[in-house]
Amino acid sequence: MPPDAAQPAPDAPLPDADPWRRFMCLAYEGVILFGVVFFFAYGFSALTRFNGQPGPLRWAFQGFMVLVLGVYFVWFWSHGRRTLPMKTMSVRLVDEQGQPASTQRAIMRYLAALAGWVIALGLAAGVHGAAILLVAVPFGWALIDRRRRTLYDLASGTRLVFERR
């Protein structure tokens, strides 16, 4: 039986994830993160009696949530692991050579993405509310980049690829 011409060669580079696949991962990830954030925020609140008031406890809560999300994403993005939405949409995070992202690259990707959110939220709170639209800039960049990388992919040397099953 001749080899199937539709199957890519085993050593062929994986194709970049298309914008629709990325968007679906983002939407599904939001559903998953709702549960993660709720669970850890409730635990923090129950243990510290934090009720949202400004002050040092609020800063501690925000730092704790940044740490929780950082651990979640760095764990799943590094060494070939994937979040449930990434598995569902057949997406994998790799470095520029196509190898699974290292822990250092996953940390850099998380910090770059976090910086984009912090800048947008800070400008929205301090300058003008419409600055919140800046959170879309890294994602919009993927629409014009020929390899479909976001700004935080460029900063960390990573890319999302589509893995055919």
Could you provide a short overview of the structure?
The protein contains six helices and two strands.
Note the main attributes of this structure.
mainly alpha, 165 residues, two-stranded antiparallel ribbon, 6% strand
Written as H for each helix and E for each strand, in order along the chain, the element string is: HHHEHHHE
Can you tell me the residue ranges where pLDDT is under 50 for at least 5 consecutive residues?
Answer: none
Structural classification: mainly alpha
Q: Give a quick account of the main beta sheet: strands, pairing sense, barrel closure.
A: 2 strands, antiparallel
Spatial sequence of strands, sheet with the most strands: 1-2
Distance between the termini: 21 Å
Inertia-based shape: globular
Write down how many β-strands occur, each being a DSSP E stretch of 2 or more residues. 2
| Helix content, binned percent | 55-70%
Report mean pLDDT, rounded to a whole number. Answer: 90
The value of Rg in angstroms is: 18 Å
What is the count of DSSP helices, taking H or I runs of 4+ residues?
6
